[in-house]
Amino acid sequence: MRARAERGQVPTTPTEASIARGAGIVDADRLECRHKEPPVDSLGRNKAMSVTAALLKVFRVDQQLRGLKTRLHAAERFLAEQEKLLKGVEDRYAALASQLKQLRVSISGEEGETASIDVRMAKLREQMNEAKTNKEYSAFLAELDSLKKKKKEIEDAELAQMGQVESLTNQAAEQAKARDERKAIIAKARAERDERAAEIKGRVDELTSQRTTFAADIPPEALRILDEMSTKKGDEAMSPVEVVDRRAHEWSCGSCMMTLTVETVNSLSVGRLTRCPSCKVVLFSEEDLVSQKAAAPPKPKAKAKTAPASRKGKASAPAEVE
User: Fold this and answer.
1) Which own/partner pairs from 67-73 qualify as long-range (CB within 8 Å, at least 24 positions apart)?
2) Taking a C-beta distance cutoff of 8 angstroms, is the pair 81, 122 a contact?
3) For burial by CB atoms within 10 Å, which of 35, 54, 196, 313 has the most?
4) β-strands 282-284, 238-245 pairing
5) What is the pLDDT of residue 49?
6) Surface-to-core class of residue 43, CB atoms within 10 Å of its CB (0-12 exposed, 13-18 middle, 19+ buried)
7) Closest C-alpha to 1, from 37, 260, 35, 10
8) Which pLDDT score, from 0 to 100, does residue 286 have?
9) Among candidates 244, 273, 237, which has minimal Cα distance to 258?
10) pTM
11) What domains are defined for the chain?
């Protein structure tokens, strides 16, 4: 299996495919553009762009897009925070306005009740003046005293409510001022957001067009994997393979630093989409260290032995005479 992977061959049997998947290799039948006789370079690698190389181009464009949009996203977050604060101010102002309305209705009702008591008290005084007996007079007087007491209670409650109205009115005025100030901040933040969006629009459109072009030839499943990892890990969606010890065949994932198996590295060296078995990022090697298969340098060829020179004083063998 390892030898076949080093020669650039893909799994052809269910058993080999199972081993490849266990090593972190994504299904080559779905993710790799295969040719009958792919051209190879001096290292035995396919010259045609692999799925990993194509994904790396898209990934680099995504990184540039994220970098460009960083300031824009900061402005959008600030605007969202200010809008949230404005909503809080408006909610508090609405609550104060509702309380003021209820208090004013209550005060209006108490004023009406006080007016009714005044009318009744005036009527009782007339009746007291016209009373013919002490008993009638005492009854009118008792009712008058009761109305006076009730009127005082209403007036005290009304006075307290008027104090609350004054306090709530002041609070509502403060919230109205805070609301106006927050609206001014939001208007400025929105203008800054729009300005930043306009500054990067041309470059963003250009990079977006490049991404569309690069992604056109990538299998949908491979692109889905990259998008999923970009959402989860951002700029760490793809990670280089780190060479720990080339002679000992030791490699690690540049993201999680976990050791990678030989099968995983070999699958990457032949251009297949390969993910780290531990952190699931897409692996790549920009310096082509993996594609060299971590082979030890070849041993130098032994020098050809030359015939020993004839010793001085010894005659050479006689030549044959025809």
Assistant:
1) 68/200, 68/203, 68/204, 68/207, 69/200, 69/204, 71/196, 71/200, 72/193, 72/196, 72/197, 72/200
2) no
3) 54
4) parallel
5) 57
6) exposed
7) 10
8) 58
9) 244
10) 0.52
11) 2-26+219-292 (no CATH), 65-213 (1.10.287.1490)
